[in-house]
Amino acid sequence: MAKSQWSFKTAVEISAALAAKQVSAVELAQDAIGRIERHDAKINAVCVRDFDRALSAARAADAALARGEQKPLLGIPITVKESYNIAGLPTTWGIPEQKNFTPTEDALSIARVKDAGAVILGKTNVPLVLGDWQSYNDIYGTTNNPYDLGRTPGGSSGGSSAALAAGYGPLSLGSDIGGSLRVPAFHCGIYAHKPSYALAPSRGHTPPPLPPLPFNRDLSVIGPMARSAADLALLLDVIAGPDPLDASAYRLELPAPRHAALKDFRMLLIDTDPVMPTDSVVRGSIEKLAANLAKAGVKVERQSKLLPDFAASSRLYMRILLSFLAASFAPDFYAGAKQAAAALPDSDTSLTAERLRGIALSHRDWLMADGGRTRLRAQWRDLFKTFDAVICPIMPTPAYPHDHSPEQEKRRIIIDGKEHAYLDQLAWPGIATLPGLPSTAIPTGFAPDGLPVGVQIVGPWLEDRTPLKLAELIEREFGGFVPPKMFDD
């Protein structure tokens, strides 16, 4: 069974074709299922298949289309990150002890996606407790990058990014606390959007066996992934909006993008920083984008005193992130980390030290750190009075070879021949995560060895449509997703 003309089409294109009766939802589902059956033994992106229910949903979508019904995702095949509850399918977060946990109700976002008419093909692979930029676990094995099977597809939404790159439907749902939407997008040459914090409710995106109740997962968001920028907005509109069980949820309409034409945007562009240097390939890709934008008449600045101190905000992010994550650490590990943190000299301000301090953060100290975050948000508000968006790296290098050594703090990443701490890579995703800003990941081309590269477009809080529109305009002007040669059939 060869690639069909629809295998790499966007959701917007597919929706139009469905409405025009150029293709049926069943044909689309069969094409995506055929691609999974043909290719996924090598990639291992879809860890839970739900083909029978997908075909039933596709038949129902075709019947609805025949009746003239209109829904945003009607008949469109999609995948979903394994960490979302879907009634009748396992939700494990890669935790072996939870391999038989099967929720009885859908996550709120899944219910919304189904109500919008989407056809869910299955669930995509994740790292253990979503805690890595690689996607492997003892239940489902390792997901490989479709552009180089020996390298990571990113994480923790790595199964979703690999599935999209391989043509397993045009949309997927992921999540992000340390770059888990944006990093896989970067490594697999696709698009992803980290929404403004709390814009899309995450009820039912819950570690098993916890009940699916509204609660504050600090820093964490759920969001859309796709092969085109316009598709991100399509899926975001479906999952955004207040949780009816949460009285504190935001009830608002997102404002329109600040501009409609590329030349009207005011951008601040950053290509590297001593806190987490980027390699020559990533810098070169950003330089090429900057030159293209300048030729298109865009106002691009390379530095500004308005930009918050990257070193200080990165240290603060490490403390707040690890303070949140440490709540679920095993008691013996937590006790050891507290002891190690107490022994740190005050002079050690490395990101490694700040992560250790974060694990041991008292509630008093957390409140002080949270006050720092409030001041940081005010700094970003001031910056966005002058600039419409900040373009910056997502990760320092293209996808690296699989490294499953158990202690991540001991792993190293090689940047232009020099070793750096693996977890220090958190700094670039953290630039948007800590202040809760929206950030759209876009592909910008390829490294000389054929691996994808890209950037993130950071926008003002609750102005998600601004970076999304900018991503769409850049895609239209300079191109976007290119299928992996190994799986372009």
Q: In words, what does this structure look like?
A:
- With 489 residues, this protein is an alpha/beta fold.
- It has 2 domains: 11-259 and 480-487, Amidase signature (AS) enzymes; 263-417, no CATH class.
- 36% of the residues lie in helices and 14% in strands.
- The chain has 14 helices and 15 strands.
- It has helices at residues 11-19, 25-43, 51-66, 108-115, 158-165, 182-188, 229-239, 280-295, 310-325, 331-342, 351-359, 363-386, 427-433, 465-478, and strands at residues 46-49, 77-81, 119-124, 136-137, 141-142, 171-176, 191-194, 221-226, 266-269, 299-301, 389-392, 412-415, 418-421, 439-446, 452-458.
- The strands form 3 sheets. It has an 11-stranded mixed beta sheet with strand order 1-3-2-6-8-7-14-15-11-9-10, with helices on both faces.
- Helix 4 (108-115) links the parallel strand 2 and strand 3.
- Helix 5 runs parallel beside helix 6 and helix 9 (310-325) packs across helix 12.
- The longest helix has 24 residues, at 363-386.
- It is globular.
- The relative contact order is 0.13.
